[in-house]
Design a protein that fits this description.
This protein is mainly alpha-helical and 201 residues long. Helices cover 73% and strands 0% of the residues. The protein contains five helices and no strands. The protein has helices at 2-24, 28-74, 81-96, 106-134, 140-171. It starts with a helix and ends in a 30-residue tail after the last helix.
Length: 201
Amino acid sequence: MVVGAVAAALVVGLVGGLIGYVVGRPSPTESSIAHLHEAEAERDVQQIIELTGMARRTRDELSPILVAVKEETEAGRTPEASQVRQWQQTMRRLTEQFDNPPSGTTATNVARSGLRSAVEQAAVAVDSVALVAAGPAAVRDDQLALAARQADLASATWSVAATQLDQINIDAEQGHQHVYLNTGAGDGVIGPDGAAEGSHG
């Protein structure tokens, strides 16, 4: 009787386990959806890594231009025409790299769009400086002041996008990535948090 009871219990257990497996097993549709989500997550991580690298390279070229625009305008000086033309060439190249962006998640798209907006605003600031030399001297100071304000807006916009970029890196388990401009603090500019670069805290 004991042997029979044990055998019956084993049979019931096996049948129950089999039923549980069949019932709990994901359907082909559910499996396909799960695979699509995994592929999307992997693609987004790669996009985040590439966007962060591009942001670092852009930051290194953009920061000195914005600093120079501010310093020159605050001193009431008009930069040399050759220097301004060089800035304009750089800004065109930096802007063009945001053309035809890949489709990513909303969070990644927001970071990319913010960076692009900052670069475009910086390009407007440089173009404003270029117009100073061609304009009448009577309005030169006002035009330079406007260029400085545009540079400030570009820095503020970049700082918001850099904060978003930091967050998506954390979410993608890449750790903190502080890709902020080296232009100093200003109105509306968000600075990096106190976390160590690459840390997950």
